[in-house]
C-alpha cells in the first residue's frame, strides 16, 4: 500500500482512524515513506491531536521531518490543492 499512494488523507473518525494515522507516522519514522499526511479539520476535530504532535516535536519525541509531512485544512478543495502542491517536492 505504501508505494501505491501519493499521499495519505485522514478524516475525523474513531480509534481505528487514529491507529491508521499513527501507523503513517510510524512508517515515516522507519523511512518507509515520506508522503504528505493530509488531515481534514471538521469542527476542530484534530486540533488537540495536532497540538500534542507539535509538543512531541518540541520535546524531541517526534522528528521534525515527520511533523513536516502533515498538511491540515478546513476545506476539501484546499486540502486537495495543498497535497497536490506537496507532491511537487
Automatic annotation (TrEMBL):
Belongs to the LOG family. The keyword Acyltransferase does not apply. Its EC number is 3.2.2.n1. InterPro entries: LOG_fam (IPR031100). The keyword DNA repair does not apply. It comes from Cuscuta australis. SUPFAM superfamilies: MCP/YpsA-like. Keywords: Cytokinin biosynthesis. This is cytokinin riboside 5'-monophosphate phosphoribohydrolase. GO terms for biological process: cytokinin biosynthetic process. It comes from the Eukaryota. It is an enzyme of class 3 (hydrolase). Cytokinin-activating enzyme working in the direct activation pathway. Phosphoribohydrolase that converts inactive cytokinin nucleotides to the biologically active free-base forms. It catalyses: N(6)-(dimethylallyl)adenosine 5'-phosphate + H2O = N(6)-dimethylallyladenine + D-ribose 5-phosphate; 9-ribosyl-trans-zeatin 5'-phosphate + H2O = trans-zeatin + D-ribose 5-phosphate. Gene3D superfamilies: 3.40.50.450.
